[in-house]
């Protein structure tokens, strides 16, 4: 009885999640894209993050915050750079933008790491081409990598964002790389999400590793984003998004003119999901408890009566044999 009581108590205290679906009526909100990726084969000087929506225009958002960490080949940090806006203006088929970004002296503190040596981002791609080529070639010889992380706030419509070397002009890119096959877009996705995380959420791309050795090409991740609202047991509600993914890799062909990149193409589902935390009612718990206790009494009473009758029968039989 004690074992069954403890089991029922645990069953009562366990929180269950109820899923409900409805048409999404969200309007006028932005879509936060949290990215945290490592590119072990490309230095930070040439990596750019671009975002585009269905209208064909690049989104420029002052709330966009991206950090780039230069990584030694052994994995430790060499330096950091804060990019207030890596969303390119006037970007056209892989050519560099001619617009200059204002210099910013920023310091960053995310609660765990503090980077005191922060370089203002006067956009590497607008520097002296000879200096850029020299710096990048030196970084490539040293096998430097780059970690890109931060938040992109984009309009809540279908679009894509990609990490690439598309910010370089073709002339500079050709001076750095003898061929497109040398552009190694191997990457590790530490975290990719579209909002805060709730208990039990599964982001399918977290921990994804894709390494290229003897070839290069373009990775494309097609994401279907589902607007989600999570309601806690205490009544608090949190709006976020979950997503599914389909992955494709297109190897680089000799006649192609598109440089390798990592694309994330996303679309929004018209159906939203509401997840509610609920606990079974106390009356339900009492009813099940009474059923367990009453059933236990009935069963043990039946067994006791049966055992008594069997023992009594055996006792009478043994006395008859003695006589």
UniProtKB/TrEMBL annotation:
<dbReference type="GO" id="GO:0005783">
    <property type="term" value="C:endoplasmic reticulum"/>
</dbReference>
<keyword id="KW-1133">Transmembrane helix</keyword>
<feature type="domain" description="Endoplasmic reticulum vesicle transporter N-terminal">
    <location>
        <begin position="1"/>
        <end position="59"/>
    </location>
</feature>
<comment type="similarity">
    <text>Belongs to the ERGIC family.</text>
</comment>
<keyword id="KW-0472">Membrane</keyword>
<dbReference type="Pfam" id="PF07970">
    <property type="entry name" value="COPIIcoated_ERV"/>
</dbReference>
<dbReference type="GO" id="GO:0030134">
    <property type="term" value="C:COPII-coated ER to Golgi transport vesicle"/>
</dbReference>
<dbReference type="InterPro" id="IPR012936">
    <property type="entry name" value="Erv_C"/>
</dbReference>
<feature type="compositionally biased region" description="Basic residues">
    <location>
        <begin position="114"/>
        <end position="124"/>
    </location>
</feature>
<feature type="region of interest" description="Disordered">
    <location>
        <begin position="91"/>
        <end position="128"/>
    </location>
</feature>
<feature type="domain" description="Endoplasmic reticulum vesicle transporter C-terminal">
    <location>
        <begin position="130"/>
        <end position="304"/>
    </location>
</feature>
<dbReference type="InterPro" id="IPR039542">
    <property type="entry name" value="Erv_N"/>
</dbReference>
<dbReference type="Pfam" id="PF13850">
    <property type="entry name" value="ERGIC_N"/>
</dbReference>
<protein>
    <recommendedName>
        <fullName>Endoplasmic reticulum-Golgi intermediate compartment protein 3</fullName>
    </recommendedName>
</protein>
<dbReference type="GO" id="GO:0016020">
    <property type="term" value="C:membrane"/>
</dbReference>
<feature type="compositionally biased region" description="Basic and acidic residues">
    <location>
        <begin position="91"/>
        <end position="113"/>
    </location>
</feature>
<dbReference type="InterPro" id="IPR045888">
    <property type="entry name" value="Erv"/>
</dbReference>
<keyword id="KW-0812">Transmembrane</keyword>
